[in-house]
Amino acid sequence: MGTKTSNRTKYLTKIEQLEQLSEQEIADLKEVTNKFAFRANDYYLSLIDWDDPDDPIRSIIVPHLQELEEWGRLDPSNEEAYTVMPGLEHKYNSTALLLVSNVCDGICRYCFRKRVFMEPQSAYLRDVPAAMQYIRQHSEINNVLLTGGDPLVLTTSKLENIIRQLRQIEHVRIIRIGTKIPAFNPYRIIDDPTLLEMIEACSTERKRIYIMTHFVHSRELTDAAVKAVHLLAKAGAMIANQTPLIRGLNDEPEVMAELLGRLSYIGAVPYYIFQCRPALGNKAYTVPIEEGYEIVERAKSLVSGLGKRVRYTMSHSTGKIEIVGRTKDYVYFKYHRAADDANSGRFMVYRSNPNAYWLDDYDEMVDDCRISLP
After folding, report:
1. Rg of the Cα atoms in the chain
2. Does 111 reside within a domain?
3. Which of 78, 92, 322, 351 has its CA 20 to 30 A from that of 13?
């Protein structure tokens, strides 16, 4: 369940610090870490069974030579097109996204924001007052997502400064914090009562704070992680979980079902299963869409209604698109959320392509239907 017992965390940012690897493995993987950043901590590494080459925690955090396969792009969802200023994105009408940190407690090998760690000084929010001014001037924004990097890497005082300013903007009703800290380092939460006090103060009856956890395998749900989730909920936060579908990690229905079930038990309600984005170096981690749909549906058949609420979606450049069904010849998609409101709720039918990893891989749309907006 992990040997770490406090937040006096030791971080590793060089592959040669992994004493469990051989000299040859370190030499081979340096080519990977020269291209894509490596970061881990002693708590998360303690969860790995180093005698198992297919250990799921190892596959999440330890670099692999497969990342050198040329495939994908640095900004797979074209976030740059929706960037108002460094660290502030406004893609959807009612939602603003603030990249408040350029650091994570660990870097998932299939991360879709590798550019944040490759260019850490240019891809996060530095001008908080300007961002607040923009949000004040756009009354259509009723929810703000804090992300990064990981917002909980910030000191509580820095995070509180941002959250309290958002709470002073009347039309901002929801604040979401996207974080993998409960999985990567739950002691950041357990050992910091001021963080929980801040959550309690800022999550009110009519304006909730949502913690969007990123558990991707049930092995991450250690006693400490479950306690961290419990404390956040006890402080008044609403907890929802989102996970990418990753080849070799959670792409077996039984494995995904176990994760969905255990998340439901602890109150981290399954929210999204994301199609792994076609980011640079991600080919070996990605499952084709139609295969992914079958995996997700079989997993959902094994869990109760709470687990079944999860939606299988892709964060496409044009919006969040849900994969809603397939037949022998066709695949069915719906815009769950669209950057262009004219596409909201749009239903699309494409001819099947078992080798498609992203919407752009489908060549032939055979039908579509847009809803009538008022």
Report:
1. 20
2. yes
3. 78
pLDDT in tens, 208-246: 999 999 999 999 999 999 999 999 999 999 999 999 999
Judge whether 56 and 249 are in contact, CB under 8 Å: yes
The answer to whether residues 64 and 211 belong to one domain is no
For residue 3, what pLDDT is reported? 42
Q: How many angstroms separate the CA atoms of 343 and 2, rounded?
A: 46
240 near 271, Cβ under 8 Å?
yes
244 beta partners:
274
Beta carbons within 10 angstroms of residue 124's beta carbon? 21
Provide the number of structural domains found in the chain.
Answer: 2
Question: For residue 243, which of 264, 207, 212 has the smallest C-alpha distance?
Answer: 212
Q: Which residue has the higher pLDDT, 117 or 14?
A: 14
Q: How far is CA 334 from CA 53, 162, 320, 322, in A?
A: 38, 34, 9, 5
Q: Could you read off the pLDDT of 30-54 as tens digits, one per residue?
A: 999 999 999 999 999 999 999 999 9
Query: Coil, strand, or helix at residue 80?
Result: helix
Closest CA to 310 of 289, 343, 336: 336
Report whether pLDDT(123) > 80. no
> What CA–CA distance (Å, rounded) separates 146 from 243?
17
CA 320, distance to chain mean position in Å, is 14
Q: Is 108:36 a contact under the CB 8 Å cutoff? A: no
| DSSP string for residues in 335-367 | EEEESSGGGTT-EEEEE--TT-SSGGG---EEE
- Other CB atoms within a 10 A radius of the CB of residue 274 amount to 19
Q: Which domain holds residue 220?
A: 79-369
Provide CB contacts within 8 A for 166, sequence distance 6+. 132, 135, 144, 172, 175
366: pLDDT strictly greater than 70? yes
DSSP code at position 169: S
* Three-state SS annotation for 132-144: HHHHHHCCCCCEE
CATH code (residue 89): 3.20.20.70
Candidates 44, 69, 81, 300; CA nearest to 182 is 44
- Do 39 and 106 fall into the same domain? no
